[in-house]
Design goal:
307 residues; 3 domains; Rossmann fold; alpha/beta; 10 helices; 13 strands; Cobalt-precorrin-4 Transmethylase, domain 1
């Protein structure tokens, strides 16, 4: 049996940096260190960090006043900073922001588009913290979020029902490259008159009436292309990622779309021996929040089951 690991599998620099930041803060803190939500979307990593004195809370009310706090990689809406400030938790004192710079870039793109007269729509997951944070900078809860290419009608209805001079679409960093392309194609195929053209990430030319900006991050693109490459030459693909990891789910979806037998797991314990019966080529890929040691454990377990 041949086992191949997809190129660029595992931690991206943003996730790695967020973990390093949280560990460093906790190391220098004699008390508890608090994080709002999951620092990264991987259960194993969260458990490991929990053993190092880091407490993860879903509600800001659970963070004591003045507590040492770290903000997760996915970004936060401005309301989070305001609430923490009211708890005497500020950047100049006891707050460390581990937001991925590529997520911050999406926020800044959305804000600049808005300032230049665009109504901005998000291609992303409505319940994902990154999209929740981004929509805060646009129209809050009134921001339209399109989750699938098949939901292109949302954009068409918005254009029909509003007298917006300019409309732009941006993407959550971890969405499907193919899905974003398909969404734009679906919109343009059903839109009379002006079509959605690409606006460069630099935003130097904002003359497009309708436009989209490619804000899917390079680490996501690299993992998707690496997964597609390995899926095409494998009898089975194992995708490793957290249950709530958007980019890991996209890798699994890509494998299924290519027609290869695929399984989405969080750890080596979930592997089943019968998956590998009469399989000669096994592909392994992992999302951006999956540590190397989990990938190694899965590969070693596959070898054990095959033997």
């Amino acid at each position: 049996m041949e086992i191949k690991i997809a190129k660029n599998s595992g931690f991206c620099f943003g996730v790695k940096k967020a973990i390093e930041v949280a560990e460093e803060v906790a190391k220098n803190n004699k008390g508890k260190t608090y994080v709002h939500g999951q620092l990264v979307h991987n259960e194993k990593v969260i458990n490991d960090l929990g053993n190092k004195g880091i407490v993860f809370v879903e509600n800001l009310a659970e963070i004591p006043d003045g507590a040492i706090t770290v903000l997760r990689a996915h970004g936060e809406p401005g309301s989070t900073y305001k609430t923490l400030n009211e708890k005497s938790i500020t950047k100049d004192n006891n707050l460390t922001d581990a937001t991925c710079p590529l997520v911050t870039l999406v926020h800044n793109v959305g804000i600049k588009l808005k300032e230049n007269g665009y109504e901005v729509i998000i291609f992303g997951k409505a319940d994902h913290p990154e999209s929740i944070g981004t929509k805060f900078h646009l129209k809050g809860n009134d921001t339209i979020i399109v989750e699938e290419p098949e939901e292109y009608q949302k954009v068409l209805e918005f254009i029909k029902n509003n007298n917006s001079e300019k409309v732009a679409i941006i993407s959550q960093t971890t969405m499907s490259v193919y899905g974003y392309k398909k969404l734009i194609e679906n919109i343009n195929s059903n839109l009379s008159g002006n079509k959605f053209g690409q606006i460069q990430l630099s935003l130097r030319d904002l003359s497009e009436k309708y436009g989209y900006v490619d804000t899917i991050c390079n680490p996501t693109k690299q993992r998707q292309s690496g997964t597609e490459e390995i899926a095409k030459e494998s009898d089975i693909v194992i995708v490793i990622g957290g249950k709530n990891s958007s980019n890991s789910k996209e890798l699994y979806t890509k494998c299924k779309e290519l027609g290869v037998e695929s399984y989405f797991i969080q750890s080596a314990e979930q592997l089943q021996a019968d998956w590998f019966n009469q399989k000669d080529k096994v592909g392994v890929t992992a999302g951006a929040s999956t540590p190397d040691y989990l990938i190694d454990e899965v590969v070693n377990k596959i070898k054990e089951l095959a033997a």
